[in-house]
C-alpha cells in the first residue's frame, strides 16, 4: 500500500512539474520581446567577462572598465551594421537585374532538360520550370533576415544597459548570495552557477572564434571568386554559424545562387565546394577539437532544442538554443529529483565520463 502511495505521489509530482514547465514556456513565449534583449546581453556578458576580470585584476576601476567595454562593443557593432547595411541596400537596388538573369538561367536549364528528354523519346513538362521558380522568394527571405537583424539592432540600447548592469554586478554575486541565503547555501549555489558559467562561456568563446573564422574564410574565398557582396555573405556566414546543424546551409544558399547567376554553373559548383570545405574543416574538425567533450547534449536533443527555442524566442532563440539547453541540463543535474531528465538529454560521452568519475 505504501509502495502504491509513493508511486502515485511520484507521478503527481511529475505531472505538476510538466505543468509548471508548460506555464513557464508559455510565459517566455508571451514575453519574448523583453526576453530576447536580456538573453543577448547575458550571452555577450559571457564573452566580455574574461576581459572584465583581466582589467579588474590590473586595478582598473569598474567605473572605467564597464563603460570602456560597452563603448568598444558599440563601436564594433555600429561599424559592422553600417558595412552590412550598405551592402544589403545595394543588393536590393540590383534585385531586378538579378531577377532577369535568373529567369534566363532557368530558361536555359529548362531547354537543356527538354532536349535531353527528347533524345530518349520522352516529352518535356507541359509548363516551363521558370513558371515554378522565382527569385522573389529568395529576395523575400533576405528581407526577412534583414528585418530580424534590424529588430535586434533596434534593441541595442536596451541590450547595452542590461549588459552594463550584468558586468557591474557579477563580481559581487557571491557576497550577495551569502547575505541572502547564508554562506553554506551561497557556496553551493555559487558552485552551480560557476559550473553553468564555465560551460556557457567555453561554448560562446569557441563558437564565436569559429564563426569569425568561418565568416572571414567565406569573405576571402568569395572575394577571390569575384562573387558580388562578399562582405555581406561573410557576415551572414558568421551570424548563422551560431545556429547548429542548419545555419551554415542557410548561409550558403544566397551566395551560391548569386555565384550561379554571375558565372554560370561552374562558378556555382565551385562556390558550393568552398562552403563545404570551410564548414567541414572548421565545423567538424577545428570546433570539436577546441570544444573538448562538446556541450554534453545528444544530437537529437540539439535538433529538438533548435526547433523548440526558435519557436519560443524566434531567430535569437535558434542562435542561443545550445547555451540555453546546456544551462537547463546543468540545472536539472544539480537536483536529485530532476537528474533523470538531465540523463535523458545528455550524450553518451558525458554519461560515460560521469560514470567514470563516480567510480573513482
A few lines on this structure:
The protein is an all-alpha fold and 360 residues long.
Description:
The protein has 360 residues and is an all-alpha fold. It is built from 16 helices and no strands. The protein has helices at 2-30, 32-57, 62-93, 95-119, 135-154, 156-169, 173-181, 183-225, 230-240, 247-263, 265-291, 299-313, 315-319, 321-333, 339-345, 348-359. The chain is globular, with a radius of gyration of 25 Å. The two termini are 38 Å apart. The mean pLDDT is 76.
Please outline the helices and strands.
Elements: H1 2-30, H2 32-57, H3 62-93, H4 95-119, H5 135-154, H6 156-169, H7 173-181, H8 183-225, H9 230-240, H10 247-263, H11 265-291, H12 299-313, H13 315-319, H14 321-333, H15 339-345, H16 348-359
Category by helix and strand content: mainly alpha
Strand content: under 5%
Rg calculated over all Cα atoms: 25 Å
The biggest sheet amounts to: none
Provide mean pLDDT, rounded.
76
Element order: H for helix, E for strand: HHHHHHHHHHHHHHHH
Shape: globular
Keywords:
360 residues, mainly alpha, 16 helices
Amino acid at each position: 500500500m505504501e509502495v502504491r502511495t509513493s508511486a502515485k505521489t511520484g507521478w503527481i509530482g511529475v505531472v505538476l512539474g510538466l505543468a509548471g514547465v508548460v506555464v513557464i514556456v508559455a510565459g517566455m513565449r508571451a514575453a519574448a520581446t523583453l526576453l530576447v534583449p536580456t538573453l543577448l546581453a547575458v550571452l555577450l556578458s559571457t564573452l566580455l567577462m574574461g576581459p572584465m576580470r583581466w582589467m579588474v585584476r590590473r586595478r582598473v576601476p569598474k567605473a572605467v572598465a564597464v563603460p570602456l567595454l560597452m563603448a568598444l562593443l558599440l563601436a564594433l557593432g555600429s561599424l559592422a551594421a553600417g558595412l552590412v547595411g550598405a551592402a544589403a541596400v545595394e543588393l536590393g537596388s540590383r534585385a531586378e537585374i538579378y531577377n532577369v538573369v535568373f529567369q534566363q538561367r532557368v530558361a536555359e536549364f529548362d531547354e537543356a532538360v527538354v532536349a535531353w528528354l527528347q533524345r530518349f523519346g520522352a516529352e518535356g513538362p507541359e509548363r516551363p520550370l521558370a513558371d515554378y521558380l522565382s527569385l522573389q522568394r529568395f529576395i523575400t527571405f533576405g528581407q526577412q533576415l534583414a528585418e530580424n537583424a534590424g529588430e535586434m539592432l533596434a534593441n541595442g540600447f536596451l541590450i547595452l544597459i542590461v549588459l552594463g548592469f550584468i558586468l557591474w554586478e557579477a563580481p559581487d554575486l557571491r557576497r550577495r548570495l551569502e547575505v541572502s541565503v547564508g554562506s553554506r547555501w551561497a557556496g553551493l549555489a555559487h558552485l552551480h552557477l560557476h559550473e553553468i558559467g564555465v560551460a556557457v562561456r567555453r561554448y560562446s568563446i569557441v563558437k564565436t572564434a569559429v564563426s569569425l573564422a568561418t565568416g572571414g574564410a567565406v569573405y576571402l574565398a568569395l572575394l577571390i571568386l569575384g562573387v558580388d557582396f562578399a562582405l555581406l555573405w561573410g557576415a551572414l556566414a558568421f551570424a548563422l554559424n551560431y545556429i547548429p546543424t542548419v545555419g551554415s546551409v542557410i548561409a550558403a544558399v544566397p551566395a551560391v545562387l548569386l555565384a550561379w547567376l554571375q558565372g554560370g554553373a561552374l562558378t556555382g559548383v565551385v562556390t558550393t565546394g568552398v562552403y563545404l570545405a570551410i564548414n567541414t574543416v572548421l565545423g567538424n574538425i577545428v570546433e570539436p577539437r577546441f570544444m573538448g567533450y562538446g556541450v554534453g547534449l545528444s544530437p537529437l536533443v540539439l535538433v529538438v532544442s533548435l526547433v523548440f527555442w526558435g519557436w519560443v524566442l524566434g531567430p535569437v532563440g535558434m542562435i542561443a538554443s545550445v547555451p540555453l539547453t546546456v544551462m537547463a541540463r546543468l540545472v536539472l543535474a544539480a537536483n536529485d529529483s530532476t537528474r533523470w531528465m538531465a540523463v535523458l538529454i545528455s550524450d553518451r560521452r558525458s554519461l560515460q565520463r560521469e560514470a567514470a568519475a563516480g567510480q573513482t
